Amino acid sequence: MNFKLSNLGLSLALAAAAASAQIASHAPALKPAPAPSASPASAASMMDPIVVTAEPVASVNGTVLTQADLVREEYAIFPYARQHNGIPKDMEPEIRQGAMRMMIFEELVYQEALRRKMTIPPARMQKAEMDFRKTFATPEEYNAFIESEFHGSQHLLDAKIQRSLLIDSLLKIEIQSKSQVSLLETRGYYDKHPEHFKTPESYIFQTLSVIVPDKATAEQSKQARARAEKDLTQAKATKTNDAFGLLAEKGSDDDYRVMEGQHQATPVDQLPPMILQALRSMKVGDVSNVIQVGQDFTILRLNAHIPEGKQKFEAIRVTLAKDLQQQKTNQLRAALDQKLRQNAKVQEP
């Protein structure tokens, strides 16, 4: 018995992570890339078999970008790499491609900020430096980082911080400030696309199931049916969803027993025909007879019937505005990337 709602695809999650990182990951990018000499518990060991080096991987108007830069961007897209002993193999190509695009884009943005002669106020630089120091547990850890990444030069670190702040400043001008979505725009989209906000007819119910083994004999099927009929007597005696849930938790074979048999709102097009037929004949609070689904047997309790409808604007206004802003952000980012690449000399694998 498996009536699960579909999950969002991995590619959508990666796209959202990459889009977010492209706009707001510049300060974290200052953190050290994993180094081959790091301790076994470090990010370097978790990157195995990737060897992090200063090997060139791309060039933007003559500025060389290295593998170490690329690894930082990969970790910006997939920050869970350290918990997962590196980036999962099946995700590596997609994440690497996204990291390469992001790294080149940021370098183009930085060079454009320099071309515009943008500067960072001293007070903002000072605050960024202090905030960065706080990301280290001890002064010794901070000094070790300066030594390993910048040959002990605070000046080189300051230049890196300034680069990040310049990227951030230009993106705020070209993307963030232009991507704001007003209440009027949000309402306009809602009114213009009513089909996007329909809610399907759905049922909320509980199950108490007997699962029959594969290749079961006729006798085993008969015994399973008898057990289900015995369960039905107890199920019919329950008066509440809690009581039915307790019964399901103790006696059901399906995966929903850990949730007291509870299925969240399930659209009618995701229900097996015999389950849907039974639910349509029931009132809220009713317990069905034993229903055979394939070779298995189940008992239903109907907790709610949700008719087809439309989401109310006030209920989805905030989420919709965020989605529209993200969409506009992605469009502005793509347009800026295309514009900056027009006269740039970019070399990549």
Question: Which helices and strands, and how do they pair?
Answer:
Layout: H1 10-24, H2 43-46, E1 56-60, E2 63-66, H3 67-77, H4 92-115, H5 122-133, H6 139-150, H7 154-176, H8 183-192, E3 198-199, E4 202-210, H9 218-237, H10 241-251, E5 262-267, H11 273-280, E6 291-293, E7 296-306, E8 309-310, H12 313-341, E9 346-347
Helix pairs in contact: 1-4, 3-4, 4-7, 8-12
User: What's the number of extended β-strand segments?
Assistant: 9
Task: Examine the coordinates and then state which fold CATH places here, giving the name of the CATH topology of the largest domain.
Answer: Triger factor/SurA peptide-binding fold
How much β-strand is present in the residues?
A: 5-15%
Uncertain runs are 1-29, 31-51
Number of domains: 2
The CATH architecture of the largest domain would be Orthogonal Bundle
Mean model confidence by pLDDT: 85
Count of separate DSSP helical elements: 12
> Would you list the SSEs in sequence order as H and E?
HHEEHHHHHHEEHHEHEEEHE
**Class by SSE composition:** alpha+beta
CA radius of gyration is: 29 Å
**Largest sheet data:** 4 strands, antiparallel
Quick recap of the structure?
The chain is α+β, with helices and mostly antiparallel strands and 349 residues long. It has twelve helices and nine strands.
What does this structure look like?
The chain has 349 residues and is α+β, with helices and mostly antiparallel strands. The chain has two domains: 198 residues, Orthogonal Bundle (Triger factor/SurA peptide-binding fold), CATH 1.10.4030; 107 residues, Chitinase A, domain 3, CATH 3.10.50. 51% of the residues lie in helices and 13% in strands. Helix 3 crosses helix 4. The longest helix has 29 residues. The chain is elongated, with a radius of gyration of 29 Å.
